Amino acid sequence: MSELADKTAGAGQGTHGTASGPKIIGALKDAAIAGVIALLLAIPILSFRTIPGDGGLAMYSRWREVAIAVAAVFTGRLLLNLFWWSQSGTPSRTKASALKSLSSLLSSSTRFIAPAVIIFAFLLPFMPFSNRYIMELAVLVLTYVMLGWGLNIVVGLAGLLDLGYVAFYAVGAYSFALLATTFGWSFWICLPLAGILAAMWGVILGFPVLRLRGDYLAIVTLAFGEIVRIVLLNWYTFTGGPDGISSIPRPTFFGLEFKRFGDNTFAQYFGLEYSSLHRIIFLFYIILILALITNFATMKLRRLPIGRAWEALREDEIACKALGINTTTTKLSAFAIGAMFGGFAGSFFATKQGFISPESFVFLESALILAIVVLGGMGSQIGIAIAAVAMIGGIELFRDLAEYRMLIFGLAMVLIMVWKPRGLVGTRTPSIFLKEKKTISADLVQEGHG
Amino acid sequence: MSSAMLSVKAVETFYGKIQALRSVDLEVRKGEIVTMIGSNGAGKTTLMMTICGSPQARTGRILFEGTDITAMPTHDIMHLGIAQSPEGRRIFPRMTVVENLQMGSILNKDAEATFDEDLKKSYDLFPILKSRETQRAGTLSGGEQQMLAIARALMGRPKLLLLDEPSLGLAPLIVRQIFDVIRDLNKNSGLTVFLVEQNAYHALRLAHRGYVMVNGKITMSATGAELLARDDIKSAYLEGGAH
Ligand SMILES: Nc1ncnc2c1ncn2[C@@H]1O[C@H](COP(=O)(O)OP(=O)(O)O)[C@@H](O)[C@H]1O
Ligand SMILES: [Mg+2]
Rounded to an integer, what distance in angstroms lies between the CA atom of residue B34 and that of residue B209? Predict the structure, then answer.
């Protein structure tokens, strides 16, 4: 009898033995529940759409989309139940170990990957597939890589949850724009000044939040980000309010401008045919170098007493004090240096766009940068770079699906946090090495008890 | 008779309106092991932290080698030559063992020159740490974490070592091992130790002198052996509360 059951089990669902019958019913039930939940969610989210029509907003119903969404959730859940979670409700073992070995491969071979990626980045403009679109995307991605690395100092290393990082990006951009337009100073003078001003604002934010941690710190920094934006929006005489600041000078290559016409242009000097691509490639190299400076500075700082103090602060503030670390200056320096790199990135943004307004510095930007840091693995330089490529690249990829973009990102975030709760590269490279470099995988690191 | 290295004079500490220490007087002389025993909530940790300036004493004075440290910030106090293994160990869980030890050397002014030597000393004291060198400290067992906390404190080459309940939650064998190390350090290197404990038996056997704290007040002080011999101490602290 059992032999027969075994034979027929593979033949089709209809002939399943008694043991697998309840499993299918259970899976159907589970999928049905998921479908109902999807329906309940889809009604408010999907079913109506407002379109500006003549004389106001017109509302359209979209029941077809709702049906598609519910059907997708139902079948997806059913398939997951039947195949993926088939062994005792957990993801199958091979998948888990494949993920594990992937992440250990990633972390063990960073030594070779990092230089390779850097070389590839430097050669990117000369690759056969590089066109204007790819270069512009690369500039955008690198801006976020740099912002991610900057915020990583505050959040990933020092453990201070900052939801208002975009404020420093804004301070950098506006400082740059105002300095460059009022005094006519060049990019290379305004850039460090904007960084210093942003760092100052980092300290100004740092002081009132010295005693705060975790959620409270997050709320205050979030408010700070909004305050900065609102001030920029309302201080019309200084910042131009909602009109922003325009005709910000573009960077020059040792005084050579990237223009079609003029006496002293880049193309003319080098005897090249004018191409608007030159300027983009130049911007690409600037942001690449700025990002690399951020990276190498962070790696260097991690090995200095100040960097070790940041990491110790993230781990245990009381122990820090007991070891003679001045937690006040440690926190302020993390805010200041993180803000400074945000300020550099802001300067770059200002000169790249030629025009800035408060609209570019909304909370969503802070959230995006923080998501990059968290997804990357809170403290992992390479992880943050990968996360920035994935997030910004993903946003580009789904541009046509504008309305569903946020939904897809929410979903992706949830999935990654379920599978890899410590981020894509959840390993921490020790800052002191003993002959051979060792990293400890995220899987070994549940805190010990007893 | 040597003069006091640490003296606590009529110190009172408050948490808001709650008074945790009541006119505490105490002295630790150079080269001594002094213990303070008291049950849970007596104020032992509060005294330890008050010495370190967090929280600060509301009244009274604390002197370390003649310097008034009552109102100093914590990090400055520690730089005078005090190291602490705090309650709950508080090692840095995501850092490796050797990185934890490196953090301890911040308090040593000549760390550049003496780090390797100090590291070797730590491993000689606690050989198990050597074999865990590149392991994340959070993955150590409780006993190993306590050893690491003490070793980390010693990396700063302190004159005075403060220990807050190093025996908490550890197996008797491990407790003995740790207390033996403390005794050897005191005997061989002349390290001065102030130890607060609930585990009165081991603490009093180790210490030259002991104090008893009840509800934030010091109620008794005598040599370790004398306290150990007293019936009231025995019944209150040694029979595991089996009264
Ligand atoms: N941060 C704090 N805020 C308020 N009360 C505290 C705080 N820490 C300790 N206390 C109180 O102070 C008293 C002494 O605590 P503590 O010094 O931790 O005792 P022990 O270390 O001897 O167990 C207890 O009554 C405790 O509730
Ligand atoms: Mg205590």
Answer: 5
